[in-house]
Amino acid sequence: MRRGGGGAGRHPKSSSMAPSSAADRTPLTDQPLYPRNLDDAFSRRDSDAFSMCSSGRPSSIPSLAAPVTNLSDRSSQAAALRAVNSYLAPSSIHLRAPLPAARDILAAFRHLLDHLGYPINNSLEEDLLTLLRSLGCPYKLTRSVLKAPGTPHHWPPLLSVLYWLTQLSRNLDNLDASSSSTPATSDDLMLYLTKSYDAYITGDDDAVASLDEEYQSKVRAHADASRMVVQALEKEVEDLVATRSKQTSGPSRLRALEEKKEAFTADVHKFQTVMTNWSTRIKEGEDALVEKEKELEAKVTNSKRMMAENEELAKKVEMQVVNVRDVDRMAREMQAVEHDIAKLENASAGLEEKGWELEASLVSKLEDTE
């Protein structure tokens, strides 16, 4: 592996660790100086907190070296219980303070075991104790505590284990979220490091330089491609900004449509006002026409009544003995009656003419309104 530039950090070919000829080199197959396989180099891990020897379950949960927390006082118990209930809230499991029911405690343990990927095979007491031992839990539980979880003196150790499992589950959720959000990296760098370290150990500086040049060319090509992508994206951003500026600088289409809508609304209001005024006028004209017709009917009835009275008077005159004075008086009365009749006929004719005029005016107004 190279450190810096040039040949710094390498053993020269003529050094004792890198013989100059192939015949002077010690075969690497007899006593390997480095791991030929990276899996062998990274296979030594602390497996105490990962394995379940008795059950054979997959070791996918790391060890959580949490300090032992004292949950003997009520304030710390209340804080731990709030943390546990907050994590168990999506599962509709709630542990009520100060002492939850035994079935709720067991349901919380079952939920946490299932969430950690350890479903119960035999019994809750056996599987939970085995899991806590394999994970190196700093809190100790006994079978008697798990058989009677609802008693007050058993609640503090149970709450401690529940809080510890809750923190473990929360940390695993965070790890899963971070691993799912991190994109998978290429193995080119690891392959390059492996080959370069192999050539460095064997003293093959030419191979190291060739690998360095090859990887640097790949990196430069990737950087150029990334730079082109960035430039294209910047150009696209500039185009989008110019388009947005052009769209925001000009008059808004929505504003123009709103102005048209306001103008149309004003015209509609004006038309409604005109229609209301004409409807009022037509109603008034119709009411006046009805009253005129009533007056005309009343005058025609009065004229008929007067004609009947005149006929009765004429009959009475014919039946009476008439002298000169009576004839003169009757002549004068007849003249007065005829004068009244003429006035009534003139008035009737005038009323008829007014009725026709009103009807013609009404018809013309109705036509104009339509």
Using brief descriptors, characterize the structure shown.
single chain; mainly alpha; 10 helices; disordered N terminus
- Derived structural class: mainly alpha
Report the helical percentage.
55-70%
**Through-space gap between termini:** 99 Å
List segments where confidence is low: pLDDT < 50 over at least 5 consecutive residues.
1-68
- How large is the share of residues in beta strands? under 5%
Shape: elongated
The tally of beta strands, per DSSP, is: 0
Order of helices and strands: HHHHHHHHHH
Largest sheet data: none
By DSSP (H or I, 4+ residues per run), the number of helices equals: 10
Please state the CA-atom Rg, rounded to the nearest Å.
57 Å
Summed over residues and divided by their number, the pLDDT gives a mean of 76
Describe the protein's architecture and organization.
It is built from 10 helices and no strands. The protein has helices at 38-41, 74-88, 102-115, 124-135, 143-147, 155-181, 188-202, 205-249, 253-319, 324-369. α2 (74-88) crosses α6, α3 runs parallel beside α6 (155-181) and α9 runs antiparallel to α10. It is elongated and about 170 Å long. Mean pLDDT is 76; it is low at 1-68.
Summarize the structure.
With 370 residues, the protein is mainly α. 68% of the residues lie in helices and 0% in strands.
Element layout with pairings:
Blueprint: H1 38-41, H2 74-88, H3 102-115, H4 124-135, H5 143-147, H6 155-181, H7 188-202, H8 205-249, H9 253-319, H10 324-369
